[in-house]
Each structure stands twice: as C-alpha cells, then as structure tokens.
Amino acid sequence: MLLTLEYDGTAYAGWQRQLNGPSIQQELERALHKLTGEAVGVTGASRTDAGVHALGQRAHFDTASRIPDDKWPFALNTLLPHDIRVVDSQPVGGAFHARFDARGKTYVYRFYNRRQPSALLRHYTAHAPLPLREDAMERAARHLLGLHDFAAFQAAGGTAKTTIRQIDQAVLRREGEEIRLTVHGDAFLYNMVRIIAGTLLSIGVGKLPEDAFLRAFDTGDRLQLGPTAPAQGLCLVRVDYEGLR
User: Fold this and answer.
1) Which of 144, 127, 131, 227 is nearest to 182 (CA)?
2) Residue 218 forms part of a structural domain
3) Which terminus of the chain is more exposed, N or C, with fewer CB under 10 A?
4) Which residues are catalytic?
C-alpha cells in the first residue's frame, strides 16, 4: 500500500525512526500497529530532517489487512497526531519501493523577507531580514538546471552512490513578503535543497557571486557555496511515480 502524507515537522526529529525524539515514521508505524495488529514497517520516499514539513511525502508498507484501499486515510487519521495526516492511499505491487521507484521530487523553500520576523509563519519560513537582489538570485538559480555533479551540494553523512542529479525546475517567486524557491529534480542529496537555498540567500545579500553554483560544479568544493538554510523553510511538496497518481 502506498500512502501520501502531509505533516508539520516542527515537533519531530525528522521522518526516520530516532532514539533522541519522536519521528513521523514512528507515529505512522504505531498507528498501523493499532489498526492492523501487525508489526508494520514503513518506508518513506524522503528522509526529511527535523523541522522539515511535507505536503506530499510518500510511504509504502505491506499488510495482510482487509481494509479497503481507499479507507486507509480515514482509519489512520483517527489514530495519528493532529500534525500528521494521511491524504491518499493506493495499492502497489510487492516489488514497489517508495524511495527507489520515485521518478522525481518537488520541494519548496520559503523565505520571509521582512526586517522583523513573522509570528505566525515562524515554523514554516526562514527569516531573511535584509533587502535581496532578487534578479541576481533568479539568474543564479538558472545555473542549476540540467544534469550536473552536485558533489559539493551535500552535507556530511550523505550515503548516495552517485552525486549526479538532473534538475528540471529552479524558480524563485515573490508572494508579498515571502520569496518561494521551487525545485524539481530526479533525486536530491542529503541537505541539497537547503544548501541551494542558503547559497541563493548569500547571493541575494551580496556575500557570494552569481556564479557560485558554477564554481561548485567545477571544483566540487562545498566552501564555494553558502550555509545550509534552516530546516523550517523547507517542504516536500510532491513525489512522482510512473503510472501512479
């Protein structure tokens, strides 16, 4: 069974099961156990970090339960915390894997660009108090498009077998006092989107040149890029699969 989940990651230590705090995976597996009586293991499409949110996380599991395919969201949401919701369910074959069968992912990173931070959006945006050179940020973002070696764009601890990635969309849009970065690609390295966002912010305030991404591609040097942007600004919006909604 493949689930689509929406969650506010503020109170959690990330998607993956942790010893140092509650995780989305733990809460979902606990709810599945209560519902089915089975020790159900859940595999997520993306191991979102502590504080990162999702509108379209995907997770699959195997079960012998006879619950109808379309009833899983209703049943699970009665057992899950209010900040985690299952929004869709669909059957998949036994060989399906939520992470390895993904064909693409879309992330949105949100900056709140005002001198003073927002009280209401503090858990969902990163505060950017200085004026930003948005034209420079937009030009820099275009350098991400295409197939590149993103070796410099990952935090320590990444386990990817290859650092080659295809980015199809990298767009900045202002909506009032928010600036939203939308990135779509075939896959992403550990902290890759947050490093992209942090670099664009550094370009926006004039701390890095517009060609910072190009320099990082050429050298593979993490120091050519900006800091990793805060977790709360990031949201996993969608994970795509061939032949599935």
Assistant:
1) 144
2) yes
3) C
4) 49
Domains: count for the chain: 2
> Within this chain, do residues 225 and 124 fall inside the same structural domain, yes or no?
yes
Residue 127 resides in a domain: yes
pLDDT tens digit sequence for 169-225 = 999 999 999 999 999 999 999 999 999 999 999 999 999 999 999 999 999 999 999
- Phi/psi at 141 (nearest 5 deg)? -60, -30
Q: Say if 222 falls within a structural domain.
A: yes
Which residues are within 8 A (CB) of 54 and not within 5 positions of it... i.e. 6 or more apart? 5, 6, 7, 9, 24, 46, 48, 235, 236, 237
- Is the sign of the CA dihedral 14, 82, 36, 62 positive or negative? negative
Alpha helices in 79-208 (DSSP H): 134-142, 192-204
Range of the domain at 191: 104-240
